[in-house]
Structure to design on (327 residues):
């Protein structure tokens, strides 16, 4: 591997970290806090997906007009109406909505712990839906994550006064994220589509199906009648975050392609830890030792799971090499 290739990989990882953390901080600013009267959590998700769908639409037209050879997702009715695609998009939208609601009540510093149950739910649904086997190491990893969640949550309630409604939103967001991931995996296995095509399908479906909810909930009207509607900075953040969500899909796919799904998982958790440290430093509010211990338990649980997956990959590779050598 050349130094140029290493630099390229590091650049992709840095882009993934920057976009991911930027999205959390931007959404935290957009949803405001629990004191803000008008809730626009669904509107934010809808407008971000609408921006994403429009960017893809413009890309298709530019490619056709200038006869470019770049790979651009295409509009496929078969994919858009597939049951797993619709289910994954709906649960993905639910993830973003409840994530935004959660951010109204919790600090960015607590984000990692508040969403840590996602992995526990993913493992559970993988066993139930995808019929995957659970091992002793996976069981231990779930135990550490749940213990860390409980310890850190108890400290957050005592020291920061976080409301349980925010935690409940986080748990629902984690549940939705796990379901979305399982449906995405099943759809991708059946249809063999790229991550970018999945991102486009998701944006297109969410931009259409969320519109009735945005209108019926009164959030569209609430936004138009608020000072935010006349705030150019708010519109800039909404537009930028829509583009960032697309970039996130592309950079994620690129990072997995250049490294591996396991390396990507390690990168995500290292990013989450960095995000927690930055958020604590930015807030200027220190956290007690037990709070950090809870975060440590969560990271240990994730580390056990990552190590288990690494061993699985090594065993699978060794088995493949042994079979090839026999042939």
């Amino acid at each position: 591997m050349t130094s140029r290739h290493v630099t390229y990989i590091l650049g992709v990882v840095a882009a993934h970290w920057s976009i991911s953390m930027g999205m959390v901080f931007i959404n935290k600013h957009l949803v405001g806090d629990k004191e803000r009267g008008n809730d626009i959590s669904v509107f934010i998700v809808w407008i971000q997906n609408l921006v994403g769908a429009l960017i893809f639409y413009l890309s298709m037209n530019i490619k056709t007009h200038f006869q470019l050879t770049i790979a651009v997702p295409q509009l496929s009715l078969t994919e858009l109406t597939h049951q797993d695609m619709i289910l994954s998009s709906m649960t993905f939208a639910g993830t973003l909505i409840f994530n935004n609601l959660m951010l109204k009540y919790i600090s960015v510093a607590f984000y990692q712990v508040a969403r840590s149950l996602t992995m526990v739910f993913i493992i559970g649904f993988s066993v139930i839906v995808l019929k995957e086997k659970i091992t002793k190491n996976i069981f231990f990893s779930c135990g550490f994550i749940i213990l860390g969640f409980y310890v850190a949550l108890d400290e957050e309630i005592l020291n920061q006064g976080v409301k349980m409604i925010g935690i409940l939103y986080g748990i629902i967001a984690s549940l939705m994220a796990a379901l979305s991931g399982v449906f995405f995996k099943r759809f991708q296995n059946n249809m063999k589509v790229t991550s970018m095509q999945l991102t486009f399908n998701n944006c297109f479906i969410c931009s259409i199906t969320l519109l009735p909810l945005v209108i019926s909930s009164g959030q569209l009207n609430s936004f138009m009648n608020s000072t935010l509607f006349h705030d150019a900075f708010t519109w800039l953040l909404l537009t930028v975050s829509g583009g960032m969500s697309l970039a996130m899909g592309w950079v994620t796919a690129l990072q997995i392609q250049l490294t591996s799904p396991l390396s990507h998982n390690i990168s995500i958790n290292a990013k989450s830890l960095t995000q927690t440290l930055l958020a604590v430093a930015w807030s200027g509010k220190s956290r007690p030792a037990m709070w950090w211990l809870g975060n440590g338990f969560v990271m240990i649980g994730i580390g056990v799971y990552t190590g288990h997956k690494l061993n699985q990959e090594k065993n699978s590779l060794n088995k493949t090499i042994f079979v090839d050598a026999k042939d």
